[in-house]
Design goal:
Chain lengths: ~650, ~220
């Protein structure tokens, strides 16, 4: 079968090749002009408008030729140039055209690229959720293409968006994921990821990690000015970590770098940080002039956010030396400046400080405002987190649909293989007339059974791992989010978490029931573990199943017996209300028997025992049998017979 | 002895961070890793710098992606790390609930504690740390409960079955020790045979020997 498929494939390729070879001859000159136009569009010395005109002409001619790859190439480059020319509306339009063409010709790579361009557009338009959506879609396409670098690049963009929108958990996870797809040669991307990681881990108050990633960023950064920014950031991480000595060392070093003096923003940051470090080490003499001086420069240069920080630090300083009036004055100034901005985080931060110094009605009013702002701040970050999780889930759902399709193809293949095997049987039967080697048939059949059994088991294990790794993990993640949300917004709904806990336990059970079997010691021991596992309610079980060890069973038989006993125990737990169970093994010369008996309520409902129908098939597959007897009120009995 | 330096291997950021936050107050140095290779690397580095970790908290399963990794599961990480640092204490923090697997971790991989993820996970991690700091082992309470349920399983062995068979053939209790001896079963005194029969009656809820035999036949033991 495989060889036929390969042949077919070769044939298809060959016929495509033929078609291309017989393209009309007039196209040769058209091809030449396209190539000339493309060259012109890549001429970096020409004006952007001219280059865009050139690539547009190339694109039009490509359409005439109906050459898909040229059409896609030219329009993609046109989009790039239009973006460089900073014409967002046109960029959006062309990117959409590009996407439509790519979808029409079903070229995965182009589809992925088109999504990326759309993501870029929305990112520039400051629409982070749409940008994230398209970057994620693009990433999914490149996952199917196994293109590591492109996957990494998209993940990087997604991480940056999440970090910008204060979804720091998500950002960290995405960035780490991105790291997996990139290697040392992708310096530019690595630099961004490391930087993103140091920012997010700092926001998550993981200062050790922040320092670690900061150091990695520093190593890759060759630009002196940018490296200094990173060093200054690193110093603040040490500050947060209360490692003032290290912070001071880094900042002093930076202060000696004269080239930085004309970079006002960075320079005042360094000065202010150094001042604050001195203050934290109780070196007030050195601290105050530095803090005051940097504030003055910041005010002069209209550096709003820096000014707010400086006021806050001065307020803290004065409070420390018990100069309350100055402390209050600076706190109020910080708040006043913050009010002029649209940054909610800063408003909350400054207001919190101001609240320390006021009383009475003003305090009442402002503290209410504080609670309100703080809540909406938390809510936005949560909303963003939920949004990104949702987008990711939706595409994951798409991917699982593809997986399902794959499973269907596998089933089809299996059917074809089965048909083929019946044909083979006939050829075999004919040959028996001449050779009579029944043994061979037996052996051959056994192998097919083993193969199909192994395939089912592999599928089960895979699904189990998926349920365990993805579903259960996601649920536990959601649980934390929900719990957090409940505690900040509405403290009266603990039943949601309780319900989530139940679902969580259910998924865990599914994983345990279908996961691979660990044969730790002997088979008997493994079966005892199984009984223990499912004996949730501490039902009395009497059994001699451990003595199964003296039978030498094949792995296939062991697995089958294990699964069936498991099914029986699960069934017992779910429906039976039994208080006593016996599982008896009887070893006889020709066949062995395991008898399961419980004293539960029994059942007439087919629905409840449908899982056991499967057991019948399973036992037949390995050359044994399975039967059961039950009726309402009379308990449940099942008998497994098997040969060695 | 309280721990000075702990390594967390866990791919879920939220859990990773949660662990970090809850431990940083009591343990001075908490380092996190998101996948196994990273964890092993950090452990090796710490050994080289003469400041080894004295505790590892690791998950078992790590999400796969298409990129090849050397270590793909917590088990592999534990084996690899134990080779480098045999005395390292290990807590497994996982969603695993299968007793077989957990026993394997404790018996074969010699991990010091197993804590199951769940609502009480973080609290239990703290309990586990206190327990293994004084050389105790620790197992999550719900797993412990399952192990305890093992006490409810009555184990019948081959000698019991043989005794039941002899009884069903009408052989009196007094003669059973001889039969056992002649059929290469261990030497039993009458007293211990009687004990076994008494135990079987209890297990199978039989009133007398005849009842016992009829139940044993009915339930498929003989």
């Amino acid at each position: 079968m495989n060889s036929i498929r390969v042949l077919l494939f070769v044939f298809v390729i060959f016929s495509i090749g033929c078609q291309k070879a017989t393209t009309p001859s007039y196209s040769k000159s058209t091809l030449d002009s396209i190539s000339n136009y493309r060259k012109a569009s890549k001429n970096k010395k020409a004006f952007l408008d001219e280059r865009i005109l050139a690539i547009s002409s190339a694109h039009k001619l490509s359409k005439k030729l109906e050459n898909d790859s040229l059409i896609l190439n030219t329009i993609a480059y046109k989009a790039t140039l239009v973006n460089a020319a900073n014409r967002p509306n046109e960029y959006y339009k062309i990117s959409n055209q590009y996407l439509n063409l790519a979808l029409k010709s079903n070229t995965s790579k182009a589809i992925g690229k088109a999504y990326f361009k759309l993501g870029n557009y929305f990112f520039k338009q400051n629409k982070p959720d749409s940008a994230y959506y398209y970057f994620n879609k693009s990433k999914e396409v490149f996952i199917t293409l196994n293109d590591s670098f492109s996957i990494g690049k998209r993940l990087l963009n997604m991480a940056i968006i999440q970090s910008n929108e204060s979804d720091f958990y998500g950002a960290e996870k995405t960035a780490i994921e991105a790291l997996d797809y990139l290697n040392e040669t992708n310096t530019k991307q690595l630099l961004s990821i490391y930087n993103c990681l140091s920012i997010t881990t700092n926001a998550l108050r993981n200062y050790d990690d922040a320092i670690y990633w900061g150091q990695k960023t520093e190593k890759l950064q060759t630009d002196n000015y940018k490296a200094s920014i990173i060093k200054n950031n690193k110093a603040t991480y040490y500050l947060e970590k209360k490692d003032f000595a290290t912070s001071q060392k880094i900042l002093t070093e930076l202060s000696q770098n004269k080239q930085l003096r004309n970079k006002v923003q960075l320079w005042t940051n360094i000065q202010s940080n150094l001042g604050y470090t001195y203050f934290k080490q109780n070196n007030n003499k050195l601290a105050l002039p530095l803090l005051k001086k940097s504030l003055k420069t910041q005010l002069k240069n209209n550096l709003v956010y820096e000014t707010i920080e400086s006021y806050l630090r001065l307020s803290e300083f004065y409070q420390d030396i018990s100069n309350m009036s100055e402390a209050k004055k600076n706190a109020q100034k910080a708040y006043a400046v913050a009010l002029q901005t649209t940054n909610l985080t800063k408003k909350v931060k400054t207001l919190k400080r101001k609240l320390d110094f006021i009383e009475g009605n003003e305090y009442k009013q402002l503290s209410q405002k504080y609670i309100q702002w703080n809540d909406s701040l938390q809510l936005t970050s949560l909303k963003n987190r939920d949004l990104f999780v949702k987008i990711k889930y939706e595409t994951r759902k798409n991917r699982s649909e593809i997986l399902e399709l794959n499973a269907k193809t596998v089933a089809k293949d299996l059917k074809i293989a089965q048909e083929k095997s019946t044909r083979n049987t006939w050829i075999f039967v004919a040959s028996i007339l001449f050779m009579a080697i029944a043994f061979m048939i037996y052996h051959w059949r056994q192998r097919i059974k083993l193969a199909s059994f192994k395939a089912t088991q592999k599928a089960e294990n895979r699904i189990s791992k998926k349920v365990h790794d993805e579903l259960a993990n996601d649920i536990s993640d959601i649980r934390t989010i929900v719990e957090h949300q409940i505690s900040t917004t509405n403290p009266t709904k603990p039943e949601i978490t309780a319900k989530l806990d139940i679902i969580y336990a259910l998924t865990r059970n599914i994983a345990a029931e279908t996961g691979d079997i660990t044969f730790v010691n002997s088979f008997g021991e493994t079966l005892m573990d199984l009984l223990m596992q499912h004996n949730h309610q501490g039902i009395k079980i009497t059994t001699n199943i451990k003595t199964i060890d003296r039978l030498r069973l094949k792995q296939l038989m062991k697995n089958t017996i294990y699964r069936i006993l498991q099914e029986l125990m699960v069934n017992m737990n779910k429906h039976s209300k039994a208080t006593r169970v016996t599982i008896a093994l009887k070893v006889e010369d020709k066949k062995n028997k395991i008898t399961y008996t419980d004293n539960g309520v029994g059942s007439n409902s087919i629905e409840k025992i449908s899982g056991l129908q499967n057991a019948e098939n399973r036992m037949q597959e390995v050359g044994g049998s399975f039967s059961f007897k039950t009726s309402t009120g009379n308990g449940f009995r099942a008998i497994i017979t098997f040969k060695i | 002895m309280m721990f000075q330096k702990v390594l967390i291997a866990e791919d879920m950021s939220s859990i990773n961070t949660g662990l970090h936050q809850s431990l940083i107050g009591t343990i001075p140095n908490v380092i996190t890793a998101h996948y196994c290779d990273e964890a092993l690397l950090k452990a090796k580095l710490a050994l080289q710098n003469n400041s080894p970790f004295d505790l590892l908290i690791s998950d078992l399963s790590f999400t796969e992606d298409h990129r090849t990794k050397n270590l793909t599961s917590g088990q592999e990480l534990i084996i690899a790390i134990k080779k480098k640092q045999p005395n390292l204490k290990i807590i497994v923090f996982s969603m695993e609930g299968r007793i077989g697997k957990i026993k394997q971790l404790l018996d074969n991989y010699k991990v010091n504690a197993f804590v199951q993820k769940g609502p009480e996970g973080l609290k239990e991690i703290k309990k586990a740390i206190t327990a293994i700091a004084i050389n105790d082992s620790y197992i999550s309470s719900n797993i412990q409960q399952l192990l305890k349920n093992g006490d409810n399983i009555d184990d019948i062995d081959d000698t019991d079955i043989f005794i039941l068979k002899l009884l069903s053939e009408g052989i009196g209790q007094d003669n059973i020790p001889d039969y056992l001896k002649n059929n290469s079963y261990p030497n039993y005194k009458l007293r211990s045979v009687q004990d076994r029969i008494k135990k079987l009656k209890e297990f199978l809820q039989a009133n007398n020997s005849n009842h016992l035999i009829s139940i044993a036949k009915d339930q498929g033991l003989i």
